[in-house]
Amino acid sequence: MRVLAIVFILACIVATPCSATPVLDQSQEEWDGIISELGTIPRENGQSFTVGKEGILSGISVYLQRGGDTPSDLTFGLFMGSEFPDEYSSSLINITIQASNISRYLHYQYFDLSSLNLAVAPNDTFLFILYGAYSPAQEYCVGYGFSSSDLYVGGTAKTRLNGGSWDDINSKFSDLVFRTYIDEEATSPPSVPEPSSLLLLAISSICLRFTLSSSRSRHPCRPSRQSRPRSR
């Protein structure tokens, strides 16, 4: 019976739902080239996107690499809407990383947005911008794709030089290479145990109590050896 009780308890534990892993929502993975700085002129690159799932926007990955040897700060900013701003005071979050922590090879650099706890829904629009202070030896490069038709219909890529106006990178159908992730379970109501789980838990508790009661009845308390009368 004790083994049976343990089995039922383990079954209840297994039946308990686990925390969900963020899932891929939006992406553009067509890569045709990289965009980097122009000489000594700082370049800022951005991408707008449209949310497809309901949940918490947990993170964004951007396909990029470090182009120089000298460390330099690179800042990722997230903004609401699809209009690229002239200045960045309206950013929802800024994440700054050292270029020395960015690979010299193209890779998906992940920017964790979970601290925002930003609830999103389908058709919400956002954009992200990569910016910072650069020099020719401290440049970074961002992968992008372009085509004669839209690669990513939910947004577009823009770039600007030295704080000027935002322009298309290569054509109006250019998009950065990126991925967005949504935690769909984070906005769900608190989970209620299923009837089957409650039943298993109740049965295991009864079995455990019965086991303990049976153990006591089979092994009543006996006087200690020292208290027994000696035979003569």
Brief summary of the model shown:
This protein is of the alpha+beta class and 232 residues long. It has helices at residues 2-15, 195-218; strands at residues 23-28, 33-35, 43-50, 55-66, 73-80, 93-98, 107-112, 119-120, 125-131, 140-146, 157-161, 174-176, 178-183. The protein has a domain at 23-183: Jelly Rolls, CATH 2.60.120.
Query: In CATH, what is the class of the domain at 23-183?
Result: Mainly Beta
Instruction: Tally the beta strands.
Output: 13
For the largest beta-sheet, the strand count, sense and barrel status come to: 8 strands, antiparallel
* β-sheet strand percentage: 25-35%
Structural class: alpha+beta
Radius of gyration: 30 Å
Order of helices and strands: HEEEEEEEEEEEEEH
Residue-averaged pLDDT: 78
Give the distance, in angstroms, between the N- and C-terminal Cα atoms.
Answer: 43 Å
CATH fold type of the domain at 23-183: Jelly Rolls
Number of helices: 2
Helix content: 10-25%
Unreliable runs: 219-227
Q: Give the CA-based shape.
A: globular
